[in-house]
Amino acid sequence: MLKTICYISDSCQEESLDTLKALYSKAKNNNSKYNITGILIYSNSNFLQVLEGDQTSVDATFKRISLDRRHRNIFKVINIDIQQRIFEDYNFGFTIVNNNNKELDSLYEYLEWLRKADNTLANKVVNMVENFIAQKTAKH
């Protein structure tokens, strides 16, 4: 059975670009090993991540993340069984939100494509991601 978990969290420190790239590389390798797809977004010391895949793998991954001392105030926004993956075609992308960002443009294109699929869960995730980004870019 497939499952998705979406969470937001605070980083315990301001992350440098090099630290974020290393974190993303490790996350991408681990998620690939466990056949987990999704997205990871970082902005203003906050993370939003969507994990999707086999229920056991997603739960185990989230447990590892929740025990990671680099996070605090972890809040699960979505925790449900799914019929199909939303981000399967996105190749576990990582986006650092800033005002001049090709990755952010690519993410918005993908979110728009998802919105056109008219899938209720996908639309809920799309709205949540867009709201997270909007809040973060408004602070700049």
From TrEMBL:
Q: Domain BLUF: where?
A: 2-93
Known Gene3D superfamilies for this protein? 3.30.70.100
PROSITE patterns according to UniProt: BLUF (PS50925)
Note the Pfam families from the entry.
Answer: BLUF
InterPro entries to which the protein is assigned, alphabetical: Acylphosphatase-like_dom_sf, BLUF_domain
SMART domains (UniProt xref): BLUF (SM01034)
Under which name does UniProt file this protein? BLUF domain-containing protein
